[in-house]
Amino acid sequence: VSWLFNPSRSEITSLDSGNIDDILNNADVALVNFYADWCRFSQMLHPIFEEASNVIKEEYPDRNQVVFARVDCDQHSDIAQRYRISKYPTLKLFRNGMMMKREYRGQRSVTAIADYIRQQKSNPIQEVQDLEEITALDRSRRNIVGYFEQKDSDNYRTFERVANILHDDCVFLSAFGDISKPERFSGDNVIYKPPGDNAPDMVYLGSLTNFDLVYAWTQDKCVPLVREITFENGEELTEEGLPFLILFHMKDDLESLEKFQQEVARQLISEKGTINFLHADCDKFRHPLLHIQKTPADCPVIAIDSFRHMYVFPDFSDLSVPGKLKQFVLDLHSGKLHREFHHGPDPTDVAPGQPIQDLASSPPESSFQKLAPSEHRYTLLREKDEL
């Protein structure tokens, strides 16, 4: 009867620098356990993770449908660094080799993990049976609608792959055959319907078989250039590893938000990928404002969080001055903001022979730095328990 107490061990795939790309790229869905042997919680998760793998492999026997894998972060620190792993254990979801923004944060139980994978395997695309359904769409959401001659086509397979990755950010719908025909006057067609009843539709004009082009276009439509940071998504945004440029504004102050969005699009589109553009509710996040000597009465306020310090944009009224906001971001990247935080404004004139202060020496800790825990979690989140 020993089998009653010793369930069969699952073959969890161990990833290393030699096999990780090949295994993840060929997996429809992969759940990867980033762990450290010395971590008690990693040790507790191992048997649960293995049993969840056993359950799922019964339902999805094809080895490329679902992969359960693990990375020993002590042995493979390069992989941990590549995916910005800073705590153990961390469960990350991958689709066709692409890591999803939202890591698994559910219960660490066999049932919960298995249910999560089943959910990830469900079809992210709603099939439309009548074009009247399109006119009744929820226009508070971002909708991507594909019109295809047939489901068994390269065009639809590309659309399906993109939807698998971005379905948390957009609603995906599709129509086929005679139902979709009125919308296919020039062949298969994909349309973006942005939020707002009067917002104009946008048509994808590239090749529908080119995944990179379709994904880039869809991501641009589904993920706003300026996103709202909340208590719910703050840690997820932090894990993207990019510093934040944040507009703190009152919830009903949409005018300031619109100006910020316009100037980010005008001045900083080339910086996308080096910094996250965000906006936050001043009233909800009073405590982070206090760290930069501001209150909701001072809003709107623009600041950068570099994860070491917060730097304040001098004057919101200068937002529309050409190049002013961009220079603020460039000063972050050059290190100027960090230097001036500790040493005051950079010297502009130095008398011959006069030594310049050694900026490479270890500066004293800022008061904000002392507030931060050793493992950084964004300030907004740290205030949640204080509200």
From TrEMBL:
Location(s), subcellular: Endoplasmic reticulum lumen
GO cellular component, one term: endoplasmic reticulum-Golgi intermediate compartment
KW Aminoacyl-tRNA synthetase (keyword) present: no
The organism's place on the tree of life at top rank: Eukaryota
Pfam families to which the protein is assigned, alphabetical: Thioredoxin, Thioredoxin_6
Sequence ranges of Polar residues compositional bias: 359-369
Record domain Thioredoxin: where: 1-122
SUPFAM superfamilies: Thioredoxin-like (SSF52833)
Record-linked PROSITE patterns: THIOREDOXIN_2
Entry protein name: Endoplasmic reticulum resident protein 44
Gene this chain is encoded by: Erp44
